[in-house]
Amino acid sequence: MKKIIFLIPTLSIGGGERVVSELSLNLPKSIDRIIVLFQKEISYPYNGNVISLNVSLSSRNLFLKIYHYFLGLLRFRKIVKIEKPDYVISFGHVANIINILSRAKSIVRVDNFYSSSCYGFGGGIYKTLIKMLFNKADMIVSVSKESAQDLIKNFGLKKEKIKVIYNPLNVKEIEKLSKEPLEKKYQEIFKKPVIINMGRMSKQKGQRHLIKVFKEVKKTIKEARLVILGSGELQPELNKIVKDLGIENDVYLLGWQSNPFKFLAKSKMFVLSSLWEGLPYVLLEAMACGLPIVSYDCKSGPREILAPDTNFNFQTKNIEYAEYGILVKEENEELLGRAVVKVLLDKNLLSQLKEKSKKRAEDFNVKNIVKEWDFLN
C-alpha cells in the first residue's frame, strides 16, 4: 500500500484546503492518507489520519515567525522519518519550502500566478526561495497552463518537473448543498436580482473594484443587490467604500459561510473581480451552481476555464463573449459594469450562460481530475 502525506497549514477555508479534502476523499483505497496540519483547524470533510504540528505562523513578530518555521520543519522531519511516505504533497508557500527541506519525495503544488502574487518584502523572499529550491522538488503541480509557463519563464524551473492538474470539483455534492434553504434572515436579500462574489477580502480579489462597479450598475438595474461571501484584512476598507458610495442598503458582506452554495444558487450571476489567480476555485463552484459568469481576464485561470480553446497568453482589451462566460479587460471597471448590465438585461444570454456554466463545470468533476493523480498509485 502506498502512503501519501498532505502538508497544509489548516483544513479550513480556502481552495487548497478544498483540494486536499477532495483528494483525500476520492483517491483509490490502495493509498494510505495522512494529513499534516500546522494547526488543527478543520471545516472540510476528509479521509485519513490527521497530525498537527502545533505551530503558528500568523505572528507579526518576525523572529517568532522564523522560530515557528524551523520548529515546524523539525517536527515534520520527525513525522517523515516515522511514517516513511512515498510522497509528500504540499499546499501553500511555507508548506512547500518545508516539504522540499524535509528530505521526503516532494510534490509542491503551485496554486497562484507567482509573478503577481509574490509581492512586498515577504513575496520577494519567497521568489528567491522558489528559484533556489523548487527544482529540488521531485514534481511541481501547477493548477493552470499559464501559471506553469510563468514558473518556467520567470523562475527558471525545469519544464520536465512541472505537471498541470486542474482543481477537482465535487459537482454532485455542490448540487446537493445548493438546494438547502437559506436562513430566514437572508431570504429577503435574494428576492431581488443578486450579483454575487466570493473570496478572501484582500487586494488580490479586487472586491473594491466590484463595489464601485455595482454603484454604476445600480443606475440601470435599480433593484440589483451585491452579496460578497468571505472575510479578510480589507473588510473594514470595503465597508467604508460601501458607506462612502451610499449603497449600504444594497450591499451585503455576509462573511465566510460553511455552505456558500445555497447563496450562489439563489443569485443571478457571479462576478470575479480578481487581479490575479491560479485557477479560481470559486469560479468553478459558481459554475457548478449554474451561475452565468463575468470575470476579469486576469492571470491566470479565468481564460482557461471560460475560453479553453483560445491562447491562454492572450488577454482581451474589451469585453469578450467567450464560450463559457464573459471575459473583461482586467481592472477596467467601466467594461465590467457594462458586461454585468448586459447579462442582467438580456434574458436569452443569461439563460445560455447558465447552461454553459453547468456543462463546463462537469469537465472539472473530481472523478475526472483524480485520474490525473494516477502516478501516486
Overall description:
This protein is an alpha/beta fold. It folds into 2 domains: 164 residues, Rossmann fold (3-Layer(aba) Sandwich); 194 residues, Glycogen Phosphorylase B (Rossmann fold). 42% of the residues lie in helices and 17% in strands. The strands form 2 sheets. A 7-stranded parallel sheet has the order 3-2-1-4-5-6-7, sandwiched between helices. The chain has a 7-stranded mixed sheet with strand order 10-9-8-11-12-14-13, sandwiched between helices. Helix 12 crosses helix 15. The longest helix has 22 residues. The radius of gyration is 21 Å and the shape is globular. The relative contact order is 0.11.
Summarize the structure.
The chain has helices spanning 15-26, 62-83, 93-101, 114-117, 120-133, 145-155, 171-178, 184-187, 207-220, 235-244, 261-265, 281-288, 302-306, 333-345, 347-361, 366-369; strands at 2-8, 31-37, 49-52, 87-91, 106-110, 139-142, 162-164, 194-198, 225-229, 251-255, 269-272, 293-296, 319-321, 326-328. With 377 residues, the protein is α/β, with parallel strands linked by helices. It folds into two domains: 2-165, 3-Layer(aba) Sandwich (Rossmann fold); 171-364, Glycogen Phosphorylase B (Rossmann fold, 3-Layer(aba) Sandwich), CATH 3.40.50.
